[in-house]
Amino acid sequence: MNLVVLIAVSIGLGLVGLATFLWSVKNDQYEDLDGASMRILVVDTDCEE
């Protein structure tokens, strides 16, 4: 009985992970992969030190 519950829970969590991944691809979360790496190189002139 415990094995059936564990298998059901693991399949459910796998489906949740797959659905989350497909949602992120559909909503263009992976469009700008170079933006974060380039943003760190830009000098922020608004910062007063």
UniProtKB/TrEMBL annotation:
Pfam families: FixS (PF03597). It comes from the Bacteria. InterPro entries: Cyt_oxidase_maturation_cbb3. PANTHER family: FIXS PROTEIN (PTHR41532:SF1). This is Cbb3-type cytochrome oxidase maturation protein. It comes from Maritalea mobilis. The lineage of its organism: Bacteria, Pseudomonadati, Pseudomonadota, Alphaproteobacteria, Hyphomicrobiales.
